[in-house]
Design brief:
Layout lengths: L13 E4 L2 H9 L4 E4 L9 H8 L4 H14 L3 E7 H4 L6 E4 L11 H13 L6 H10 L4 E4 L5 E2 L11 E7 L4 E6 L15 H25 L2 E2 H9 L10 H16 L5 H12 L6 H13 L10 E7 L2 E6 L7 E4 L4 E4 L12 E2 L3 H5 L13 H4 L3 H11 L3 E10 L5 E7 L1 H7 L5 E6 L7 E7 L3 H13 L6
Parallel strand pairs: 1-2, 4-5, 6-8
Antiparallel strand pairs: 3-7, 3-9, 7-8, 10-11, 10-14, 11-12, 13-18, 15-16, 17-18
Length: 470
């Protein structure tokens, strides 16, 4: 039997690891190359990794965290104003990401806070709102995560905004998220023009009350089940929520119609929800918060429970270090831009919506939603590769969120900071991009990764908390 000439073989004749220039040089010489996606460990982490891995509590702690997360439920039980569910008073504002002050706030965060001041009637003009915020007069800021809530992009929540309320009965916890405004010039992207404020008033006066009536008539809606279905229908739960939005509308539509509200208002609500493919994102996010917070506060546990950004800093929280934030300057996404916008217009990464990646979907689930690359950039092979890579830094798979294209493999779940440090692989995030100038709104969507420094700092702190060796 004739053997193929070795130079014509399709088998790799050279294996390269982590050196792209070397790989491409060999390919240019018609050499078959087998590249291995290898990265060096994160700098200055070896000692801390060893300490955390030697912690006798770690294996049991991580196993308990995984059990809690996989058992987590997420049901929509009500829609209520933030003043009721979060106790917010006029002048109290929540925001996305780790704590920040006005002086530290980015353009889109400042724009959203200005808009919230105008919406609440606490200032008559943007200039007056900015002056009050800068002085701190009658104003306080705090992270959504500190109240068990989540907010997309700027994530600003004020007293009069309506919130989705979700329950996890398995772990006896509750989480909340504001209602989604749509895309483009909206408050969460830092816009505060009169049409933005008018939309928020309509959401306060019409959308919120009608959704409350429909949910209370309908009874509990299993959000986790909808997420499971939509993952198998081409959504990934962060930047693609089309199927999820339509399934939610299917659940609510009969009770919206029977609510007794004027037909014109019902039609307005249906048009608004059905025309906003991202509407369901604001239910995925609190479902993610319920799942990840179930793992919080376990001594010795090395799993990430929060990834969030405020437009200036990226922050993570780890189970074994409780509510402590580990922050570093946020990176700027790389992706596709709207209209005439370009890289110079984009603000650094912003929003609590990275809770979707923390729970194992979003950027982790791009293999299940290859069409997402048309929105955030990249290629379908990139999407497949990214999802497969995320299994390298997680400790479990969630069978509830199965990826058909990976033979129904469960979502990679439980980001372990020791695996991030040892592999050098950072979580992949897909995200919208806000304009860096207050009032601009959305400028695009793209891909981004957290700064490695967050994981290095968290690992060092967790190592410091390990019991001394006997």
């Amino acid at each position: 039997m004739t053997q193929p000439h070795p130079l014509l073989s399709t088998e790799p004749r050279v294996v390269t690891a982590g050196v792209d220039l070397f790989t491409e040089t060999l390919r240019a010489q018609a050499v078959e190359v087998g590249p291995v996606d290898w990265r060096p460990p994160l700098d200055a982490t070896a000692e801390h990794v060893a300490a955390v891995l030697a912690d006798p509590r770690r294996d049991a702690a991580n196993a308990e965290a995984v059990q809690r997360m996989l058992a987590s439920t997420a049901e929509l039980v009500d829609v209520r104003p933030a003043r009721e569910v979060l106790g917010l008073q006029p002048g109290q504002f929540l925001h996305a990401g780790p704590p920040l002050t006005w002086d530290h706030a980015s353009g889109p965060m400042r724009g959203a806070l200005i808009g919230a001041m105008l919406f609440e009637g606490l200032a008559a003009t943007p200039e007056a709102a900015e002056k009050a915020l800068a002085a701190g007069t009658g104003v306080s800021l705090g992270p959504c995560h500190d109240r068990g809530a989540v907010g997309p992009m700027a994530g600003v929540v004020s007293a009069s905004m309506w919130m989705f309320e979700l329950r996890d009965e398995a772990n006896n916890t509750t989480s909340w998220c504001s209602l989604n405004e749509g895309l483009g010039k909206v408050l969460r992207y830092g816009a505060y023009s009169p049409d933005v404020i008018e939309r928020l008033r309509w959401m306060r006066d019409v959308l919120g009350p009608l959704l409350q009536t429909a949910v209370r008539r309908r009874g509990r809606i299993d959000v986790k089940a909808i997420i499971a279905q939509m993952i198998q229908m081409g959504d990934e739960g962060h930047n693609r929520n089309r199927a999820g939005t339509l399934m939610l509308l299917r659940e609510l539509l009969p009770d919206l119609i029977d609510s007794g509200a004027p037909p014109a208002q019902v039609a307005e609500v249906v048009r608004f929800v059905s025309g906003n493919d991202h509407f369901f994102l604001n239910l995925v996010m609190p479902a993610g918060k319920l799942q990840t917070s179930a793992a919080a506060g376990i001594d010795g546990c090395s799993l990430v429970t929060t990834m969030a950004r405020n437009g200036t800093d990226f922050g993570i929280q780890v189970s074994g270090t409780g509510s402590q934030w580990f922050t570093a300057p946020a990176n700027t996404p790389d992706g596709l831009y709207l209209g005439s916008f370009g890289p110079d217009d984009a603000n650094p990464d912003i929003g609590d919506s990275t809770i979707t990646e923390t729970m194992g979907i979003g950027g982790f689930a791009m293999a299940a939603a290859p069409a997402i690359v048309r929105f955030v950039g990249g290629t379908v092979p990139d999407a497949l590769h990214t999802s497969q890579l995320m299994y390298e830094i997680t400790v479990a798979e969630n069978p509830a969120y199965a990826y058909p294209i990976l033979d129904f493999r469960g979502a990679p779940t439980g980001i372990d900071i020791t695996l991030v440090a040892r592999t050098g692989i950072l979580p992949q995030i897909n995200t919208g991009m806000a304009g860096k100038v207050a009032g601009t709104g959305q400028v695009g969507a793209g891909l981004v990764k957290p700064p490695a420094e967050c994981f290095v700092a968290a690992l060092a702190e967790l190592a410091n908390r390990t019991p001394p060796a006997r």
